[in-house]
Amino acid sequence: MKNEESTQKEEINTIENTDTIVQIPFWKRNIISLILLSLFIIAIFWGSIQNSLTTRRYDKAIKSIKEQHEHVIQNLKNQHQSEINDFKNLEAKKLVASLGFAVRSEMIAENKNQIDQYFIQSLKDMNIQRAILVDSTDNVILSTNKKDEGSPFEITELLEAKGPMTFLDEDSSLFAATPIMGLNSQLGILIIEMD
Questions:
Q1: C-alpha torsion angle, residues 31, 32, 35, 40 (rounded to 10)
Q2: How many whole angstroms separate alpha carbon 106 and alpha carbon 113?
């Protein structure tokens, strides 16, 4: 009996002990997991902040570099365009001067058909859009555009040419002009419009 009594007492003690067992809180049981989770969240938050700061910093640097390079590129484009325009002007002056010598000899010989042939050949071989011969009264004698013949020429800057010159009109068309001199007087002015 004693055994039975002692067994019953142990069972009663165990039951009492289970009633008196205090539950350990969740955070105490999983403290390491919670610390690791919070460190992981902090690391993600810190990483995203650093990423956005780095992205902003690099975007500003890239924008600054682009602005500097666009300025340099624009300056180079302007310089290049200026050099091209200078070359075109020089080419136009040389072309009108050499064509002027041929026209002069034919004008002295009063051979307008040959001058017309020079004009037609110039249109075919060179980058000339139109060739015009103006007399001393500012009327068009010969032109590659036959509608111009007999009408007054309107660009006065070209009619005042004292030597080979170029002129850029408001439509950005490049004109070159040279006076055609006879033995004692000016016979006319040769004007070409370049492409």
A1: -140
A2: 9
Tell me: the pLDDT tens digits for 29-82?
888 988 999 999 999 999 999 999 999 999 999 999 998 899 899 999 999 999
Residue 94: beta bridge partners?
none
* pLDDT over threshold 60, residue 17: no
| Plot region of 138 (φ>0 → left; ψ -120 to 50 → alpha; else → beta) | left
The sign one gets for the Cα dihedral 143, 146, 149, 155 is negative
Radius of gyration of the CA atoms of the chain, in A: 48
| Sheet strand arrangement including 140-143 | 140-143, 128-135, 186-194, 174-181, 165-168
**DSSP structure class, residue 162:** S
pTM: 0.63
